[in-house]
Amino acid sequence: MSEPMLRMYISFAGMILLFLATGLILLARHKLTGIISGIVTALAYICMLVGGFIIFFIVFSGPTPA
């Protein structure tokens, strides 16, 4: 597998983590209560940080040689 294709798949993983974080935040705020809501919210923010770091790394690492 070439490096550009690998970066594309890694960026997809980052985007999926960001969408997952959005869904988990909405779930925790509207459907859950108590300690479970806090756990789901913490998991969502972890997903958001990891996904954001992945996207940041992919975007600012520059173009790949073809």
Structural overview:
The protein has helices spanning 3-30, 34-60. It is mainly alpha-helical and 66 residues long. It has one domain (10-59). α1 (3-30) packs antiparallel against α2 (34-60). The longest helix is centred in the first third of the chain and has 28 residues, at 3-30. 11% of the residues are buried. The model has no long low-confidence stretch (mean pLDDT 95).
- DSSP helix fraction: over 70%
The shape, in one word, is elongated
Question: SSE string, helix = H, strand = E?
Answer: HH
Unreliable runs, pLDDT <50, ≥5 residues? none
SS element count, helices:
2
* Helical/strand content category: mainly alpha
Separation of termini? Answer: 12 Å
Write down the overall mean pLDDT: 95
Largest sheet: none
> What proportion strand?
under 5%
Gyration radius from CA atoms, angstroms: 15 Å
Give the count of structural domains.
1
Q: Give a count of the beta strands, DSSP E runs of length 2 or more.
A: 0
